[in-house]
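ok trying again, last paste got cut off:
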Amino acid sequence: MAPYWASLLLAVGFMLLAQRGVEVGGESVLKKWDARNGRSYMRWGVVASALVFVCLTGFRYGIGQDYFYAYIPYFERVRTGLEQGDLEVGFFALNWLVSRFTNDPTPVFLFCSVLFFGFSYAAVMRESSHPVLSVFLLFGMSYFFIFMNAMRQMTAVAILLFSLRHIEEKKLGSFLACIVFACTFHTSSVLFVLMYWLPKARINISVCLLSVLCFFLFKTQIANFVNSIIAQTSYAGYVGSVFDTGQTGNVIIAMNIVILLFSTIVPRLNGGEYSDRYRLLLWCQLICTLIAILSGAIPLSQRVRWIFSLPSIILLPLAVDSIGNLRIRFLVQASIVILYIVYIAITIGMWNGNNVVPYQCVFFRNGV
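nice, full thing came through this time. structure:
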């Protein structure tokens, strides 16, 4: 776990330096990004923070459950001239292009890392009220580790996170272009299109509680209905397969409910109103929570949850920053950081979630 903790410290450290506007010299590196919280962030610091994660994930070797199970075999298929198969055109094109120049698949992983963290950081710098906390949550909420396993889908999810700006600006064409681009890596991204019409839809504590309660009470009926639809699609093979385990992620359910209720209640307690942007993020979190409740009843439901999950790294900081009392706000932030550090230490450090430990680099394949 040491390389991961070190990367977190470096990434957050660079963001803190960028926030303080540390000058390095030379006009080109002194350009700034203005974030939602009114602060200016030095571009060199933001880029350096992202590069820490890009290098660690892009130059990994054998890290992630799907590394040897899916990505290496697919690269070899493409390299030896086999057809696209059932994977999306964007991911096929990336593998095909890399395979024309080298037999080493590392550039595929590196390019996906650039896309994932590039789009994630771009969204954070524009949408988050606390970019430093959002960068921490990218790691603490385990999306960093999920990416190293489900790289293809999480690349698409980062593009979807970036597309939120086009919903806010009511640019349907640009939003749909992002959806199409994301679908070239994972076709499930098409489900995100419904988010365009949700910012105006009503959402409050009553809607959230009632929705959660209904999904708990009618979980079996809802799951049967969804599975009947899946049975008519190309994903029918997953129903009753080894992926249909029946296991329920109670921790994930609890975490999503807590985030949802906290984000719904706290702004109201402090006299705030939901903006269209905040309402959109709440809808994403509500959908995540409802899908999490269905885990175990629908095969690979967590894969659907990921489509709507990444906006939580922006929603939670916005909710925290709505707390008017600075002392309480600091205590809440500190509690969030501590809890997520413990969460990663257990799920990744002890249980090896997503099969990412021990870390190995392509340059030191026999290292720990």
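cool. The chain has a mean pLDDT of 88. The longest helix spans residues 326-350.
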